[in-house]
TrEMBL record, chains A, B:
A GO molecular-function annotation: DNA-binding transcription factor activity
Descriptive protein name: LacI family transcriptional regulator
UniProt domain HTH lacI-type: residue ranges: 3-57
Keyword field contains GTP-binding: no
Alphabetical keyword list: DNA-binding, Repressor, Transcription, Transcription regulation
Keyword Transcription regulation (UniProt): yes
Organism: Paenibacillus darwinianus
Organism placement in taxonomy: Bacteria, Bacillati, Bacillota, Bacilli, Bacillales
Length: 328, 328
DNA sequence: CTGAAAGCGCTTACAG
DNA sequence: CTGAAAGCGCTTACAG
């Protein structure tokens, strides 16, 4: 059986109180007692039950992480960095893949609350407001997504990124530039990429052409959209895709149709994950500062957990970077 | 404040016992009482504290997942599937990125034990035995990795995969085939890929040429190895890489050196993740059945959790599939 | 410097 | 069909 604090206590000839004290390094304990207790813990292979501790402390050091799917390289890398930083700060991470489905997300939020998480980091491309986030008063930080006007949002500087991408394509002489994005009705910060595209295009007196992919995680949806672009808009000579997988999908279809990239069509992606850049190093893309996004989200969350709600910025946009490959 | 079971009880005019009963659907309760309790729970926005429940039940429905890093597409996808299946079965997942560092892994195991996880799924490329796994008697399943002779291992059929890859290269006429793998000294099932390569080569009277990458997750290590291959073995005309990122790294270097693929050099990867196939669709590779690996690992783990140790297979190898791209 | 007691929020025998 | 009591494994005032 698992040893508990009482077992350690009797073996060391002290009270459970004392064992707890040496465990938590609280109060004064004679060195001799300490040694006896440590010895007993070792002999019994004792390790404390964090459930019991947390129950008493009303603090779990657990945070819930909701991402659409760690299969997507952006969220896979984001999850890695978030968990990694959390671990270094003594926080544990419960992973939730919402697949951007609102019902899943709601039940995850519920589950996390029941597990008494200290806070939640919610990342997703879209989804309307989730009531549960407001009902309970728990620390929440959103990544690239507006959840409510009290929940801080962290993300890349989407506007700057969209602007960079569009301007690059224009500067390379593209005349018909298509932008591929998620559904319009969603009011996410990622929409700023689209806004930037539209405004830059307008500034050059050009007509924006936007294609929407219903489900950014659905390969089939992506392909269908790409095919539609070629069919409906054969004069396309520039594409700003909302993520790298989408850009890759476009590039493949272009090759299949014998269109040369970047000669005939230039393509810029978004995200710039390590995986994408290893697998498709020629891709020109806008790199999101994933480690920085992770760090900022955690910093904000911890401030919330510690009760500093007042002075938190509602929106934090971190700088993006143009990765110059050879597709544009 | 958060409502607790006593609050619900007094508002519904019953005892906490009764509330607990309706919560758990245990014993006989009159419909009228049930309704009153549900009403009170709603009004108070009550949700049970799983910490307290778990403490009593000695069951958390929590499983620990240790992967090297979700940044790697293979483990990102594996994590997704594992969490997804777990969620559908009422299990929660605590994510741990070990980076294949033994000290990190040990402290994760410790943390997981303190959190009373019901079981652990440990995936990693390498690492010697971890004592902690044996010290405690807890349910553990390993993915592509030998932890001890009592811990079940799940993985792809590495031998078949290695054979397929090597035979494909031979059948395409390659004469100098290099295999890139992790450090030799590690006794992982992934080593079977290497064994298969060696045996097939021997069968054709060919000399195996193996290059080892120290840290499979280090891009720099990968590149260095790739460059060494070109420098030391310029006659190479076939490569079987131990994973797709490595294959991609080789392909990039080949392009940089003006070597045409597949004309001058043919390349086969391993893993066949969705991301890799979207970003580098021309890659020829051996696809691991990731969803099946996830499912099998969970099935085994749950059997262990439920005490069925006896009849569990020590090794489970799931079928791989050749993805015919155009790099070989 | 150390211990007995109460309590964190639940659940389950045991009674009735 | 329902409740009072004890206990899951800890920690923290409160005493001494």
């Amino acid at each position: 059986m698992k040893a508990k604090i009482g077992d350690v206590a009797s073996r060391a000839g002290v009270s459970p109180t004392t064992v707890s004290r040496v465990l938590n390094n609280r109060g004064y304990i004679s060195q001799e007692t300490k040694d006896r207790v440590y010895k007993a813990m070792n002999e019994l292979n004792y390790f404390p039950n964090d459930l019991a501790r947390s129950l008493f402390n009303k603090r779990t050091n657990l945070i819930g992480l909701i991402v659409p799917s760690t299969s997507n390289p952006f969220f896979g890398e984001l999850s890695f960095h978030i968990e990694n930083i959390c671990a270094s700060m003594g926080y544990k991470v419960m992973l939730c893949n919402s697949l951007n489905q609102i019902d899943k997300e709601e039940s995850y939020v519920n589950m996390l609350m029941r597990n008494q998480v200290d806070g939640i980091i919610a990342a997703a491309h879209y989804n309307r407001e989730i009531l549960s986030y407001n009902k309970q008063n728990i620390a929440v930080v959103a990544i690239d997504r507006y959840l409510s006007n009290t929940i801080p949002v962290v993300g890349s500087d989407n506007y700057a990124g969209g602007k960079m991408a569009t301007e690059l394509l224009l500067s390379r002489g593209c005349r018909t530039i298509v932008h591929i994005n998620g559904p319009l009705e969603l009011d996410t910060p990622a929409r700023l990429r689209r806004n930037a595209y539209e405004e830059v295009m307008a500034g050059y007196g050009k007509q924006p052409i936007i294609y929407e992919v219903n489900d950014l995680f659905n390969q089939e949806d992506q392909r269908t959209t790409v095919r539609r672009i070629f069919d409906e808009c054969p004069e396309v000579d520039g594409v700003f895709a909302s993520n790298d997988l989408q850009a890759a999908s476009f590039i493949s279809e272009a090759r299949r149709r014998g269109k040369s990239i970047p000669n005939e069509i230039k393509v810029v992606g978004y995200d710039g994950t390590e995986s994408a850049l290893m697998l498709l190093p020629e891709l020109t893309t806008i790199r999101q500062p994933i480690p920085l996004i992770a760090q900022s989200a955690i910093d904000l969350l911890i401030k919330e957990i510690e009760g500093q709600f007042g002075d938190l910025p509602h929106e934090t946009y971190l700088p993006v970077e143009l990765v110059e490959g050879s597709t544009a």
